[in-house]
């Protein structure tokens, strides 16, 4: 049915083009059959073109973009500039929400724009630690998912991916348990079904937040977790290779 998507979000790493190309080639060589698992690497925007040229099996994604095609937006990258270069774009990552003032409404605009330009959005959602302890996880995720997708007429045919990334699990080594991640991913699946019943079963939902070679298989065994958005481990060749193997093994069992 739906194909898992494992995406490496390199964030602002590594620090040289040479290292970026080397990492891209290593991941490309380790990537499973693209018919079984979609592997994506998301390098810093400045290296998208070189990285794209260095790979043949994996897809390339951007880490963010502006919603507008062109204009007076200093420092930004437009969807027109990305199309033809990147197949995917991460939108609404919690670091963008936290440090760059990205809002639910802004993420929604970007999702519409990405789809209009033929880019597959990886729409990232997830609660902060204080929201989880206040018992508002479900409400936060519901609001973020509906805001991210509210501008789309339908979900089918958009190539949409959702990434559930609890903020407290990002970069902390404290991943959600597979059961807790599954609970929220099932909730997201139900929201997708509410918005577009026919498309919901086809949309990959990733888990992200301290995914490692050790916990990937357990996460991928959950019915509503279809791959991962990987930060730190995506920079380590052996770790990302093991995560990709776990995704391929999980896909082969389904
Ligand atoms: P870590 O895998 O380093 O926790 O980061 C997750 C993330 O933010 C991916 O987008």
Describe the structure in your own words:
Helix 1 packs parallel to helix 10 (237-253), helix 5 (104-116) packs parallel to helix 7 and helix 7 packs across helix 8 (178-195). The protein has one domain (5-253): Alpha-Beta Barrel (TIM Barrel). The mean pLDDT is 98. It has an 8-stranded parallel beta barrel with strand order 1-2-3-4-5-6-7-8, surrounded by 6 helices. It has helices at 17-30, 48-54, 79-82, 94-99, 104-116, 129-133, 137-149, 178-195, 216-220, 237-253; strands spanning 5-9, 38-42, 59-62, 88-91, 120-125, 161-164, 205-208, 227-230. The chain has 254 residues and is of the alpha/beta class. 40% of the residues lie in helices and 14% in strands. 1,3-dihydroxyacetonephosphate (13P) binds next to strand 8.
Q: What layout of secondary structure does this protein have?
A:
Layout: E1 5-9, H1 17-30, E2 38-42, H2 48-54, E3 59-62, H3 79-82, E4 88-91, H4 94-99, H5 104-116, E5 120-125, H6 129-133, H7 137-149, E6 161-164, H8 178-195, E7 205-208, H9 216-220, E8 227-230, H10 237-253
Parallel strand pairs: 1-2, 1-8, 2-3, 3-4, 4-5, 5-6, 6-7, 7-8
The structure holds 1,3-dihydroxyacetonephosphate.
1,3-dihydroxyacetonephosphate binds at residues 9, 93, 165, 170-171, 208-211, 229-233.
């Amino acid at each position: 049915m739906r194909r898992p998507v494992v995406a490496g979000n390199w964030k602002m790493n590594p620090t040289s083009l040479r290292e970026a190309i080397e990492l891209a080639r290593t991941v490309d060589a380790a990537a499973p059959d693209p018919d079984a698992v979609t592997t994506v690497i998301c390098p810093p925007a400045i290296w998208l073109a070189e990285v794209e040229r260095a790979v043949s099996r994996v897809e390339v994604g951007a880490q963010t973009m502006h919603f507008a095609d062109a204009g007076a937006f200093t420092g930004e990258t437009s969807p027109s500039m990305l199309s033809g270069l990147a197949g995917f774009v991460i939108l609404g990552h919690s670091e963008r929400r936290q440090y760059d003032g990205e809002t639910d409404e802004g993420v929604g605009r970007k999702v519409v724009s990405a789809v209009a330009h033929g880019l597959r959005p990886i729409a990232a959602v997830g609660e902060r630690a204080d929201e989880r302890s206040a018992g508002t996880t479900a409400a936060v995720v519901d609001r973020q998912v509906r805001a991210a997708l509210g501008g789309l007429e339908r979900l089918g045919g958009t190539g949409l991916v959702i990434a559930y990334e609890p903020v407290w699990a990002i970069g902390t080594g404290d991943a959600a348990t597979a059961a807790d991640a599954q609970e929220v991913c099932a909730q997201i699946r139900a929201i997708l079904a509410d918005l577009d019943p026919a498309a919901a079963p086809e949309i990959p939902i990733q888990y992200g937040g301290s995914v490692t070679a050790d916990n990937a298989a357990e996460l991928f065994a959950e019915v509503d977790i279809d791959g991962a958005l990987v930060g730190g481990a995506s920079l380590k060749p052996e770790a990302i290779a093991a995560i990709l193997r776990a995704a391929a093994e999980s896909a082969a069992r389904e």
